[in-house]
Specification:
Length: 248
């Protein structure tokens, strides 16, 4: 029968994303070592959704193209704020200014057409049921392309804790089974390494990227589905045999 596991964690082997350095401690082992990798995830309903909105304009001069784009993007941002979105949930993700050319087959040369400016923002919505209405409002305000929606859990600590507990339970079951099959009496943890996974969609709306030429007739349907979050752990165990009792 296998006895309770003797716990000995190597310092610095529980890795969090914020850590940039970890101490390494080598723990000597006399018995054979077995390494197990286990992944567990937990699914839950998302509580936030991120969408992207962009404005693209063209003009004969770079100044005019940027000025026109800025005016249209400001209208889009004002509309986003009017929906109740906080400033910290609106982030500019890129502004690009590039000359555009057409190819003249007669002269076989590139001919300047206009300057093009694109400006994109990322918007985090905390009322998922308002996603469709928000997309419709953005287009009405002048957004010329949309991306998303991307659903997530803002604070997935509880879900990750649950996934971690499941992963450790599975690892314990597996290593104890190996020990019993191989004729060992105990197992001792030598090392634990953890990798965290961000939330990922289980089911998403079919609307991923939409180029818009005119205002939408109605708000698009959006299904949030469920998202998953999890942890992947790698554990090293030493397999131990009890010393024979000399008195027996």
């Amino acid at each position: 029968m296998i006895r309770n596991m003797l716990i000995a964690f190597a310092a610095g082997t529980l890795v969090a994303p914020a850590l940039t350095q970890a101490a390494e401690i080598e723990i000597e082992s006399e018995g054979p070592v077995i390494e197990l990798s286990v992944y567990e995830s937990v699914t839950a309903e998302p509580d936030i959704v991120t969408i992207g909105a962009g404005v693209t304009t063209e003009a004969a001069s770079a100044v005019d193209a940027l000025r026109e784009n800025s005016e249209q993007m400001q209208a889009v941002i004002d509309r986003i704020k009017a929906l109740g979105v906080a400033d910290e949930d609106i982030q500019t993700t890129g502004i690009n200014l590039n000359p555009r050319y057409d190819y003249d087959r007669t002269s076989q040369r590139q001919v300047f057409r206009a300057y093009q400016v694109t400006n994109r923002v990322s918007v985090k919505l905390r009322e998922i049921e308002e996603t469709g209405a928000a997309l419709d409002a953005l287009v009405s305000a002048g957004a010329t392309d949309l991306t998303g929606p991307v659903f997530a859990i803002e604070d997935d600590k509880a879900a990750k804790d649950q996934a971690r507990e499941r992963a450790l339970e599975r690892a314990t079951e597996h290593v104890e089974a190996y020990a019993e099959l191989l004729g060992f009496d105990e197992v001792r943890i030598l090392e634990v390494n953890e990798a965290l996974q961000g939330t990922s969609p289980i089911q998403q709306s079919a609307m991923r990227s939409v180029a818009v030429e005119e205002s939408l007739a109605s708000a698009p349907p959006v299904q949030p589905g469920r998202v998953s979050t999890g942890v992947s752990i790698t554990l090293k165990y030493e397999l131990i045999k009890d010393e024979p009792n000399e008195e027996e």
